[in-house]
Automatic annotation (TrEMBL):
It is found in: Cytoplasm. Residues 18-68 are annotated as: Disordered. Residues 99-169 form the BTB domain. Residues 32-42, 56-68 have a biased composition (Polar residues). The keyword Cytoplasm applies. One of its GO terms (cellular component) is P-body. This is BTB domain-containing protein. Keywords: Cytoplasm. The lineage of its organism: Eukaryota, Metazoa, Ecdysozoa, Arthropoda, Hexapoda. Pfam families: BACK (PF07707), BTB (PF00651), PHR (PF08005). Residues 18-28 have a biased composition (Basic and acidic residues).
Length: 506
């Protein structure tokens, strides 16, 4: 063989930028070398003649030169075992073979050097395409990524090389960050879908914070819906006290929280204590109010009962004397003074309003003499009662005054009450009388629905049902069971009487 042809062979071998020369000692894989020694072995060329400075390898040595994997082992004809493009590209993932760029990912002890291939990355990401092929493309074979977690970056590369998605609870947020950073929308969508499928009351606040941080409005809306429907459980979750102040404000400003305002205040107190500790401040009432900022004025103190206010906020030290006096006046006098806190009820429920009707037909007439109509009921899942449907006068259009209550049977505690009015048109339809805010009803627990009407004689229901199943719009069913409420009930029973309908949300 002529020497010139041998030189051609050597040049072709060298152009592969392999890590070992013929007859030489094996070198460690490039991603195991210090960053300042990662130039390819055997790539030094004499500037005058363009030939390698090393001795000419023998023909047998040239034939034995093959690509190596990250372990340094020779891989002979590896392409023959990969029958599809996907298999061949997947094999190159995190592999030194043919790699032309290295990423130094992470910081300090967590730092990792990861080999990659510019072409594969440029095909899958516009950001990588600009990085390697744009007007300001980098010429360096090393790219530092101190803000990216190595595991998340490997998940991104795995997706770009093979379309495989490898995410879990521990890595999903860092992978989402990396996917957004490099504009890989398909992986971003997989991450968001994973979060949606794992959304619960225990992590709703945590995921809401992340969704707002990463500008994922659809995920944020799902988190808020979860918080609306399960406010008590979400506020009691460990992650609630870890949220940022903007997220706290966004939640407290909602009209759709299904919880008593006194419980909201207790949760906000817990958050303010945690925030003082985070800021290394003494946990004092003044500091708690300071760290709350405008969130403090999002608490709707006027929605509390006077007992709830007296036992909680009035003794907390967060309100000044003038505010306490003004709020006590709000609870006891008319017209109501301006107290500087919202009094808008949190009863703008989401979802479809549902109604259970317990009577099959209507008769007349039902009288009132200052006594209360009552019926006992239970449900098989948690619901939120927002009002009752009541019968009106059969004499013609009339206005009634009514005092509504829902009472927990075992404890005799009033869960919700309101004094209001409703107008009827003289028909035997039912007419709405609503609570100020939703009343949470727990499953398999006995409650008393109570209505004390003041007005003329009305229609009443007959042929009552003990068990009524309500079909919901999402395919669920809610089962109500009605029974006799002992004591003074103005004659209302399962079979006939008032309170024909309960209006609720799930």
């Amino acid at each position: 063989m002529a020497s010139g042809s041998k030189n051609d062979i050597v040049n072709r071998v060298l152009n592969l930028r392999l890590e070992e020369g013929a007859g030489g000692e094996e070198h460690p894989p490039q991603n195991m070398l210090p960053s300042n020694q990662q130039s390819r072995q055997g790539s030094h060329v004499d500037e005058e003649n363009g030939h390698a400075n090393e001795p000419m390898p023998s023909s047998s040595a040239i034939e034995n030169l093959q690509p190596t994997n990250n372990t340094g082992c020779r891989l002979h004809n590896w392409q023959a075992t990969k029958t599809t493009v996907k298999e061949r590209l997947s094999f190159l993932f995190n592999n030194e073979i043919l790699s032309d760029v290295h990423f130094i990912v992470g910081k300090d002890a967590n730092q990792q050097i990861i080999p990659a291939h510019k072409f594969v990355l440029s095909v899958g990401s516009a950001v990588f395409d600009a990085m390697f092929n744009g007007v300001l493309a980098t010429k360096s074979e090393e790219v530092e990524l101190p803000d990216v977690e190595p595991a998340a970056f490997l998940h991104l590369l795995k997706f770009l090389y093979s379309d495989e998605v490898r995410i879990g609870p521990e890595s999903v947020m860092t992978t989402l960050y990396t996917a957004k950073k490099y504009a890989v929308a398909a992986l971003e969508e997989h991450c968001v879908d994973f979060l949606k499928s794992n959304l619960g009351t225990d992590n709703a606040f945590l995921l809401l914070t992340q969704a707002r941080l990463f500008d994922e409005p659809q995920l944020a809306a799902l988190c808020l819906e979860m918080i609306d429907k399960n406010t008590t459980d979400a506020l009691n979750a460990e992650g609630f006290t870890d949220i940022d102040q903007d997220t706290l404000n966004a939640v407290l400003e909602r009209d759709t929280l299904r919880i008593r305002e006194a419980k909201i205040f207790a949760a906000v107190l817990r958050w303010s204590e945690a925030e003082c500790i985070r800021r290394q401040l003494p946990v004092t009432p003044n500091n708690q109010r300071m760290v709350l900022g405008r969130a403090f004025h999002a608490i709707r103190f006027p929605l509390m009962s006077v007992e709830e206010f007296a036992m909680g906020p009035a003794q907390s030290g967060l309100l000044d004397d003038r505010e306490i006096v003004q709020l006590f006046l709000y609870f006891t006098v008319n017209p109501k003074p301006n107290v500087g806190f919202l009094d808008t009820p949190r009863c703008c429920m989401t979802g479809k309003e549902l109604t259970v009707n317990r009577f099959s037909q209507t008769e007349s007439r039902w009288g009132y003499s200052g006594t209360t109509d009552r019926i006992r009921f239970t449900v098989d899942q948690r619901i939120f009662v927002v009002g009752f449907g009541l019968y009106g006068s059969y004499f013609g259009p009339t206005e009634y005054e009514v005092h509504l209550q829902i009472i927990h049977l075992a404890t005799k505690k009033v869960c919700g009450s309101n004094t209001t009015t409703f107008c009827c048109d003289g028909s035997d339809d039912t007419f709405r009388a609503m609570f100020k805010e939703p009343v949470e009803i727990l499953p398999n627990t006995s409650y008393i629905a109570s209505a004390k009407l003041k007005g003329t004689d009305s229609y009443y229901g007959t042929r009552g049902l003990r068990r009524v199943t309500v079909d919901c719009n999402n395919g669920e069913k809610v089962v109500f069971q009605f029974s006799y409420a002992a004591g003074n009930n103005n004659g209302t029973s399962v079979e006939d009487g008032q309170i024909p309908a309960i209006i609720f949300y799930i």
